[in-house]
Amino acid sequence: MNRFLLPLGLFAALVLVLAIGVRRAPEKSVIQSVLLGKSAPDFVAPVLGSPDGARFEANSLRGRWYLLNVWGTWCAECRNEHATLLQIKATGKAPIVGLDWKDQPQDALSWLRQLGNPYEIVAEDRDGRIAINYGVYGAPETFLVDPQGIIAYKHVGAMTDEIWAQKFLARIEPTGARPSP
Amino acid sequence: MIPELGTFALVLALLLALAQAFFGIAGPALGKDRWSAVARPAALGQTALSLLALLALADAFVQHDFSVRYVAENSNSALPLIYRIAAVWGAHEGSMLLWTCILGFWTVAVALKSRGLPPTFAARVLGVLGLVAAGFLLFLLATSNPFERLSPAAPDGRDLNPLLQDPALAAHPPMLYLGYVGFSVAFAFACAAMLEGKLDQAWARWTRPWTTAAWAFLSIGIALGSWWAYYELGWGGYWFWDPVENASFMPWLMGTALIHSLAVTDKRGLFKSWTLLLAILTFSLSLLGTFLVRSGVLVSVHSFAADPTRGIFILIFLIITIGGALTLYAWRAPLLKSTAGFELTAREAFLLFNNILLVVACTSVFAGTLAPLISDAAGLGTVSVGAQYFNPVFMLPVVPLLALVAVGMHAGWKKGRLSEKRRTLLATAALAAAFALAIVLGVEGGIPWLTPVAIALGAWIILSSLVEPLMRLRRGLSLSRSVLGMSLAHVGLGVFVLAVAAVETYTVERDVALRVGETATVGSFEYRLESMGPMEGPNYDGVRGIVVVSRDGRELARLHPEKRQYWVQRSVMTEAGIENDITRNIFAAIGDDLGEGKWSIRAQVRPFISYVWLAAFLMAIGGGLAASDRRYQRREAAASTRPGVLAPS
Amino acid sequence: MSNLRSLLLILLALGSAVVGAVDPEEMADPALQARYRALTHELRCMQCQNQSIADSPVGLAGDLRREVRELLQQGKTDDEIRGWMRERYGAFILFRPEFSPRNAWLWLLPGVLLLGGGLIGWRILRQRQALEPLDSDTPEDST
Q1: How do residues A132-162 score in pLDDT, each as one tens digit?
Q2: Closest residue, chain B, to C65 (C-alpha)
Q3: Above 80 in pLDDT, residue C32?
C-alpha cells in the first residue's frame, strides 16, 4: 500500500510549493533589484540642455535623499507617470534627478517643455551604460537614494501617488510605522 | 444583449455539467440506471451551451462591441476580421472559454462513441468529464467572465497583442488545447476504471485511440508554436525552454509514455497500475500547465495577465481533481496485479525502458521549470534556469532512448526473437552509421561529437521503421493502419532527430551592419541590402527592407523583412524575411537603426529547419492513422459490471 | 579594353561596398568570438525575459551584448563577465544555474533519476523473466 501513496504524497509537496508561489506572486512579476542596500553607482554624465557641456556627477548629491528617475521620450508609461512626478516636485521632499535613457536631447527637451519639468537636473545616458550599471531593464524605473548614497528602494513601472506615499515618503520620513517592503 | 445571453448560456452549461457529473457518478454507484442515463444528454447539452457562449463572444468581436471589457482589451476598430475572430482566444478569459468548449468537443465525441461501452462505465467517464467541465465553467463565471461589461463603453479597443496577429499563432491555441484537453479522456477512463473497480485489457483498448488522437493534436500545436517563434519572436530561435513551452511539452512526453504503456496493457495485460498512473499524470500535467501560465508564479515571455486570485482558484481545482484521482489510485491500484512474464529482449522490455526514460526526461524538465518556485519556497534563494540546463539534462535520457527505438520496433511480444532480426538490425545500423560518417566527412567545419551520433540514430530509426511496412508490401500482406501509423510516427521521430542535428550543427549566423547597396559575407553566402523604406499596414507602420541573398554569384532568395510599429499598443515587432528551400531556410531580420543609414541585420541560414516541424506533422499523421484503425471500431459486448471487488486479470 | 576597364570599375565598386559593411557585433579574434557567442546565449534578455541576449532584437539586448564585447576585450574571464552581470541584475540574468550547494539538487537530480530508473527497470526485468508468459493469444508481431 505504501508505494501507491507516493504519487499523492509528492503531489501534496508540489501543492505546498505552488501555494507558497501564488502567495508571493504579486512581487514576483517584478524582479527584485540586487542593488538594494548597496551604494548607488557613481557616474559622470552630460547635463541635458546645458550649452556649455556641463557634467553631472552623482556623488554631488551626497547628504540628502533624492530620486533617480529613468525615462525616455519613446516610453509610453513615462508619459503616464509625469503628473505624479510633477506633484512630487511640488512637495519639495526630495529632488528628482532624471536619467534620460537612450534618447535624443532635442526630443527630451521638447518633451519637457511640453509636459513640464519635474527634474532638478537631467543627466543624459545616450548609450545606456549608466542604466546597465543600475540594473535597469525597462523604463520607467525610479530609485530612492539615501543621504549616504545607498539605494533604499527601487520601483519598476510608472510612479503613482500611492507608491510615492507608501514606499518612498515612508522611508524618507518614517512615521514610526515600518514602510511596507 | 448577446453578451448577457453568453453569460446565461455559461450558467446553464454549469448546471448541466453538474448534473452530468452527479448523475454520471452517483447513478452507477447506487445502481440507478435511469440516473446513469442522464449523463449523456447532459453532456451534449452542456457542450451546446458552451459553444453558444463562444459564438456570442465571437459575435461581440465581429460587431466591434467595445462595451464588453474583454473585447475592448483585445480588439480595435482597425483590426482585420480574421484576427478579430482569433482574438476570441487571444487572452485569458477567452482562452478559458475555448478550453471549455474543446473539453465539450471531446466529451461529445466520447458520448457519441460510447454506445459500445458498458453503460455504467460510459456514465462514469462522462461523469468525470462533467466534473472537470463544471470546474472550468465555475472558474469562468467566478473569476474570468469574458462577457463582463465596461461602463461606460470604451470608444475603441486596446488592440490585440501584435504578437498574436498572425495565422500560425491564431491556430496554435485551438490545436494545443485539442491535445492538452484531449488527455482528459484518458483521465476520465482511468477514473471510471478506478470507480468501477476493474481494469483490464479491454479498458486499454478503449483508451488507446483517444489518447493517440490527443497526442497527435498536441504534437501539431507544439510545432505551430515553435514555427511561429522562429519567424516572429526573435532572431531565428525555435525552442527556448520557456516555462510555457515546457508546460505543453511535459504532457507530450508523458503522453508519449502513456501511448506506449497502453500498448503493453492492451496486448499483454501488464503494467496496469503504471498505465493508470500515467493516464492520471498526463492530464494532471495539462492542468498544471494551465495553472502555471495564468497564476503569475512563473515569469515568461508568454504568460497571460497574472492574477493570484485566479491562481488560487485553479490550485484548489487541482487539489480536488488530481488529489482525488491520486487518492482513488492509492486505494485501487494495489489490487491490480498480473503474473505474465516476458523475456529480456521482448518488446515489453523495450517499452518498459521507453517509459522509464521518458519519465526521467519529463521529470527533469519539470524540475528545471519549477526550480525557481521550489528554490524560493524552500528558502534556497533565486535560481534561474535556461537552455544551458535543459539541453544537456534532456539529452541524457533521450539519447539512449533513441538507440532503443530502432531495435525495440522489431522485438516480438513475450519472446523478443531479436536473433531472427539480427541481419536486418545490423544492416540498418551499418547503413545509418555510414550515412552519418559521410555527412560528417563531407561537410566542412568542426563539429561536436554528438552530431554524428544523432545523425546515425536518426537515420537508424527511419530505416528501422521502414522495414516492416516495406516487407509487408513486398509480400503482399495487409498493412493495417495501426502498423502504418506507428511506422510513420517513428519515421517522423527519426526525421526530427536528423533535422535538429543539422540545424544545431550547420547553422550559419551573423549580425551585420549594412547600408543600402552594401553586401556582407555570411559563411558561403552573400547578403545584400537592396532597399529599406517606410511602409504601412492595416494597423501598423514601419520599415520594410529587401535583402538579396546569393551564393557564388547566383541569387538564392529575395527576402522582405519588416519592422512594424503597431499604432494602438505601440509595440515594435520584427517580421523576419524567410525563404524556404527544400534544404534550408534563408533568414534575415531587421535590428536597430544604427544611424547614418546603417541598419543592423541578423543574417542566418538554417539547413533543414523546416523538417523539424514537418517531422512533428509526420508524427501527428502517424498518430491519427493509428488511432483510426479498424480494431478500435469493434463494438464491445456489454460486459456485466459489479462495483466493488477488483478482479485481477 | 573598355570591357576590362568596366570590369575593374565594377570590381572596385563591389570591393568598397564589401569593405563598407563593418559588422557592429563581431570580434576580430575568433577565440573571443566563440566565447562571445557562448556567453550571449547564456545571458537572459531582461526585457523579453525568456530569450537570450543573442536572440533578442531589443535595444537592451544590444547594449548588453556591447558590454560583453568590451569586457572580453578587457581580458576578463567568462566567470568574471557572468559575475559582472550578476552584480547588476541578479542571478536571474544567468540561464545556467551555477553549481553551488544551494543548486546542487537541481543538477544532481537528472542523474539520480536516471540511475534510479535504470535500477528499477532492471529489477522489473529480472522479475518478469522468471515468470511464465501465461496468455498465449497475442500475435507476436502486432502493434
Answers
A1: 999 998 889 999 999 999 999 999 888 999 9
A2: B511
A3: yes
H/E element holding B558? Answer: strand B554-559
A15: exposed, middle or buried (Cβ count in 10 Å: 0-12, 13-18, 19+) = middle
In this structure, which amino acid lies at residue B183? F
pTM: 0.89
Helical residues (DSSP H) of chain A, grouped into ranges:
2-23, 25-28, 76-91, 105-115, 129-133, 161-163, 170-172
Give the chain B residue nearest C40 (alpha carbons).
Answer: B388
The shortest C-alpha distance from B420 to chain A (Å) reads 39
CB contact under 8 A, B377 and A17: yes
Q: Which of B307, B287, B313, B284 is nearest to B295 (CA)?
A: B307
Burial B53-71 (b: 16+ CB within 10 A, else e): bbbbbbebbeeebbebbbb
Closest chain B CA to residue A3: B330
pLDDT at A30: 62
Nearest to B466 by CA among B445, B481, B449, B488: B488
Helices B243-268, B201-228: inter-axial angle, 10-degree rounding: 160
CA–CA gap between residue B158 and residue B79 (Å, rounded): 10
B419 touches chain C (CB under 8 A): no
Look up the ipTM and state it: 0.88
User: Average pLDDT of chain B?
Assistant: 89
Rounded to an integer, what distance in angstroms lies between the CA atom of residue B124 and that of residue B64? 42
Spatial separation of the C-alpha atoms in residues A166 and A87, rounded to whole Å: 15
**Inter-helix orientation angle B272-294/A2-23, to 10°:** 0
Interface test with B, best of A6, A18, A31, A80 (most B CBs within 10 A): A18
Q: What does the alpha-carbon distance between residue B257 and residue B181 come to, in Å, rounded to a whole number?
A: 17
| Three-state SS at B606 | strand
B40-52 residue pLDDT tens: 999 999 999 999 9
B-to-C residue pairs, Cβ atoms closer than 8 angstroms: 193
